[in-house]
Amino acid sequence: EKVMSYGDMLSAKDLELSELKTQLEGLEAEKNSANEQLEGYAGRDGVVASYEKLLKAADDYYSGEYGAVADVIDQLDETVTGANYQAVYKKLKDSLNTEGMSELYKKGYDAYQARDFEAARDYLTQCLAIDPDYPDALFWLGLSYHNLGDRETAFKYYDRLIAEFPELSYAQRAAELKNE
User: Fold this and answer.
1) Which single residue of 54, 103, 120, 142 could bond 111 by disulfide (Cβ 3.0 to 4.6 Å)?
2) Contacts from 138-144 at CB under 8 Å and sequence distance 24+?
3) Cα(35)–Cα(46) distance, integer angstroms
4) pLDDT, tens digit (0-9, with 9 covering 90-100), for 149-165
5) What mean pLDDT comes out for the span 62-69?
6) How much is the pLDDT for 90?
7) Helix or strand (DSSP H, E) at 169
8) Mean pLDDT taken over the chain
9) Inter-residue contact 128 to 135 (CB < 8 Å)
10) Which of 124, 69, 117, 119 is nearest to 93 (CA)?
């Protein structure tokens, strides 16, 4: 009778152990799922990282570092669904496309007029990072490279200007510069 009692207790303990193993496996699966979800928020490319980049872009924008904003905007995740994130992202992108590009172009043009061709090159390159098809920036960037002695790069910008905007006086002047 005692042996039967011990056998019944062992069977009950085996059943209990089996149930605990099943629970443990379920909890491990939940833990793995939670870790994957957490990685989506806190990982290198997660939501938190996207917010950090957005804050960096906003800080650069308010500091007048439009070239840096353009670099960061390109790295931002447009799919983050937070309403505030989307609102700030859209405002930054729209402002960069208007104010930022205009300001970079003005700085580049002014630097060119001051014969600071390296600064002009840098500002105009940043301007074209925002709008690659801005003909004025293409022309003055080509001239900046031309004055820096890099005719090969200058001709690339002249060629784009001639091919994409042949009706503009800048394109005609670029063709003349290539033939000199």
Assistant:
1) 120
2) 138/165, 138/170, 139/170, 139/173, 139/174, 140/108, 140/109, 140/112, 141/108, 142/174, 142/177, 143/112, 143/177, 144/108, 144/112, 144/117, 144/118, 144/120
3) 13
4) 999 999 999 999 999 99
5) 82
6) 85
7) helix 169-179
8) 87
9) no
10) 69
Q: Which two tokens stand for residue 147?
A: 């004055």
Alpha helices in 43-82 (DSSP H): 47-62, 66-75
Question: pLDDT tens-digit profile of 23-34?
Answer: 999 999 998 888
Distance CA 56, CA 53 (A): 5
The one-letter amino acid code at 12 reads A
Would you say 148 and 180 are in contact if contact means Cβ atoms under 8 Å apart?
A: no
**pTM, entire model:** 0.61
User: 168, 135 in Cβ contact below 8 A?
Assistant: yes
